[in-house]
């Protein structure tokens, strides 16, 4: 079994800030020099494909200091009301680009805190997704829930609308850590919400946890994970805290505390990992765990796990369409992002314009690199024989040299037709994937990135 002692000697070399590769090219390659007709063309062409629709609901009641999401703290109902009206306008404009509604295999409401919207606002958001798009009969609907703002009526509303998967932001159960990061929620509250979700009809429950927060110790994270195991979510994300205070200014508040260093982060991660594996959870990719009968575990076993802007997924969708401020869409030939500025968003959608402010086209070579990076992060194996022409196109002398070095360090095993990630390499998946990231050196030179620690 992999131990933290096997990881420590490699930290200096590999624990560098790197993208999380929820897309390739990564979001820092999106620019404002793009042709809106290319975006319109890509949307029009995707009408036949079942897409995943992501709807960003950015509002939150209070600010969690660790958060790097695009969120808006507000107590004004008006802000939320106006936003829903603007989502409708955006959906209308998208629908006007195609002769028939775009087909959806997945719908995910994320944020921000979707559960901070009122029930009537949520009902309207759901109605928008049903009216301007065409959900397939087996569509999977999921939602992010803040245990502090959701309630019984809301959970019933989601279930009646066909939502079966809910992700609860848990982060950490320790009182001291919760105070330091400004997110107080008791284990009793989370337990009540889990019971209410099951009673309402949610079939799959996810938890989001974070390691690397100030105040966390091996003892405190053990205690948190034991409480989590007791609540038995189907899957959970164990994210490394991403300290990117250049982008998320409120994170500076946490700099007055001792943030765990890389060695301590490894020790926190392994403490949680050991407990989860002993409790029957399977390690997925680099930062998820799932019960063996959960879809994520089954797809990882079959080699069909996928990755998109929402992280690891089993989505059979052929791309992601994002609705709402800051949402990113990914339609294989092009990626594009809605402006994150609320006023600009309102102005654009009110005038019937598409609200995209940045985009990046993907060349065939980019698409091939994206596929290989996804194989590394999801299925831990690259078999060139399954990807005709890829090897000649993207495996140059520099990539070959780096793969040989990774093998020397015990992170991969080279095979006749590709390579396989070792157990030790699982901790450095982002580093292994970065071998195929052509843009990373120039992104760093341009001072772009602000990537989080790879561990
Ligand atoms: S962690 Fe969630 S609830 Fe907290 S500020 Fe970020 S988006 Fe809002």
Describe the fold and architecture.
The protein has 455 residues and is of the alpha/beta class. It has two domains: 117 residues, Orthogonal Bundle (Arc Repressor Mutant, subunit A), CATH 1.10.10.920; 295 residues, Alpha-Beta Horseshoe (pyruvate-formate lyase- activating enzyme). Helices cover 37% and strands 22% of the residues. The chain is built from 16 helices and 21 strands. The strands form six sheets. Strands 10-11-9-8-7-6-5-2-14 form a nine-stranded mixed beta sheet, sandwiched between helices. The chain has a three-stranded antiparallel beta sheet with strand order 15-16-17, covered by helices on one side. Helix 5 links the parallel strand 6 and strand 7. Helix 3 runs parallel beside helix 4, helix 5 packs parallel to helix 7 and helix 8 packs parallel to helix 9. The longest helix has 19 residues. The radius of gyration is 21 Å and the shape is globular. The model has no long low-confidence stretch (mean pLDDT 94). The chain binds iron/sulfur cluster. Iron/sulfur cluster binds next to loops.
């Amino acid at each position: 079994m992999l131990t933290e002692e096997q990881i420590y000697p490699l930290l200096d070399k590999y624990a560098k800030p790197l993208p999380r590769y929820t897309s390739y090219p990564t979001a820092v390659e999106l620019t404002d020099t793009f042709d809106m007709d290319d975006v319109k063309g890509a949307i029009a062409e995707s009408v036949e494909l079942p897409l995943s629709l992501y709807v960003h609901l950015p509002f939150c009641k209070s600010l969690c200091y660790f958060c790097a999401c695009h969120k808006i703290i507000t107590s004004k109902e008006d802000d939320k009301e106006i936003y829903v009206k603007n989502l409708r306008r955006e959906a209308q404009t998208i629908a006007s680009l195609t002769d028939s509604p775009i087909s959806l295999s997945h719908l995910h409401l994320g944020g921000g805190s979707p559960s901070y919207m009122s029930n009537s606002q949520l009902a309207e958001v759901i109605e928008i997704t049903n009216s301007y798009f065409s959900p397939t009969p087996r569509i999977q609907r999921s939602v992010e829930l803040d245990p502090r703002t959701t309630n019984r009526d809301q959970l019933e509303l989601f279930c009646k609308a066909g939502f079966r998967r809910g992700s609860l932001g848990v982060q950490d159960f320790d009182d001291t850590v919760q105070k330091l990061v400004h997110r107080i929620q008791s284990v009793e509250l989370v337990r009540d919400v889990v019971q209410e979700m099951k009673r309402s009809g949610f079939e799959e429950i996810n938890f989001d946890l974070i390691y690397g927060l100030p105040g966390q110790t091996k003892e405190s994270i053990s205690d948190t994970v034991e409480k989590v195991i007791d609540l038995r979510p189907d899957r959970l994300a164990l994210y490394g805290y991403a300290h990117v205070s250049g982008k998320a200014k409120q994170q500076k508040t946490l700099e007055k505390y001792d943030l765990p260093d890389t060695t301590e982060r490894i020790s926190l991660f392994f403490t949680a990992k050991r407990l989860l594996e002993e409790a029957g959870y399977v390690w997925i990719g680099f930062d998820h765990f799932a019960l063996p009968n959960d879809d994520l575990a089954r797809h990882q076993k079959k080699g069909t796990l996928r990755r998109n802007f929402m992280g690891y997924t089993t989505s059979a969708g052929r791309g992601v369409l994002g609705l709402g401020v800051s949402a990113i869409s990914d339609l294989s030939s092009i990626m594009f992002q809605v402006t994150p500025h609320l006023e600009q968003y309102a102005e654009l959608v009110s005038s019937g314009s598409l609200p995209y402010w940045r985009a990046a086209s993907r060349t065939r070579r980019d698409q091939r690199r994206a596929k290989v990076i996804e194989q590394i992060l999801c299925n831990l194996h690259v078999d060139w024989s399954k990807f005709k022409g890829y090897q000649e196109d993207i495996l140059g002398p520099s990539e070959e040299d780096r793969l040989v070095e990774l093998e020397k360090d015990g992170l991969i095993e080279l095979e006749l037709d590709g390579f396989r990630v070792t157990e030790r390499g699982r901790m450095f998946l982002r580093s292994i994937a970065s071998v195929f990231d052509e843009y990373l050196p120039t992104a760093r030179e341009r001072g772009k990135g602000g990537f989080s620690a790879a561990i």
